[in-house]
Amino acid sequence: MTAPLESTKTANYLPFLPLASELEALLQDPSVRVPPRQVLAWPGGGSLFVMPAHDTRLGMSKVITFTPANAGSARPTIQGDVLVFDLRTGSRLRVLDGPTVTARRTAAVSLLAAQKLAPRPDGPMLIVGAGVQGRAHLDAFVQGLGVKEVWIASRSADSAQALVQHAQHLGLDARWTARPQQALDHCPLVVTATPAQQVVLEGSLRPDHFVAAVGAFTPAMRELGPALCQQAWREGRVVVDTPDAQHEAGDLLQAGLPMDQMPTLAQVLQAGAARRGPVLFKSCGWAGWDLAAARLACPA
């Protein structure tokens, strides 16, 4: 497993607010090239992901494993590294801890989307899933949006309580809930961050809701109930992180939504945020986000 020092050093390179700004800058950089990621399924349900990208200065590849069977154990579900290279010389500049990059850039993407799209970005906030991504999103939204109140829902009461204690240590009004549907009524800012194969959040959305769904990244996975997704599409807007989500966003695919009509985050940022009704932001991951992290960790 990755040494804690490697994770800490990588996190120090990637503060959330500068990372969100770097993500926005990357979306405006026409030199960025991101080929399709390669996914090799392994016996037993695990997978190997190889995700390269480059701009005019840096090349990088994230090589990680995803092992769902590790959930609930001492081993992380995501392990691996991000290799960063100088395009001019081919020299390796840095090796970043893959799970830390994944957690922080995913939370920073959600932060960027919330900064631009959330009707009430200061919360209160509901987080469904108290693992690595849940904590990263809590930290990112506190630092970037000034969230003061958070509700935590998780299948594991111990994990939920640990995240509640972390939030309280940050000075938040934090509590655990066994009924995320009820907390949804109270919290206009929502993040779902579970490796779910079945629905973990249902209910009706208010016009001021912003939901960032980041846990499901294959067609077979889903976190959100079909009715919730359909309401967001019908009454507000559904935004995906990249065009790849058309084939990967299990929540939206299983809700029967017209994936070819979904605007991407880059398109929304270019056009400006039209604020009407609830917003559902669906994030499936992209090597471009890892390249933004590499750019921040290896400044010119």
Automatic annotation (TrEMBL):
Name of the featured protein: Delta(1)-pyrroline-2-carboxylate reductase family protein
Domain of life: Bacteria
Gene3D superfamilies: NAD(P)-binding Rossmann-like Domain, ornithine cyclodeaminase, domain 1
SUPFAM superfamilies according to UniProt: NAD(P)-binding Rossmann-fold domains
Organism lineage string: Bacteria, Pseudomonadati, Pseudomonadota, Betaproteobacteria, Burkholderiales
InterPro entries for the chain: NAD(P)-bd_dom_sf, ODC_Mu_crystall, ODC_N
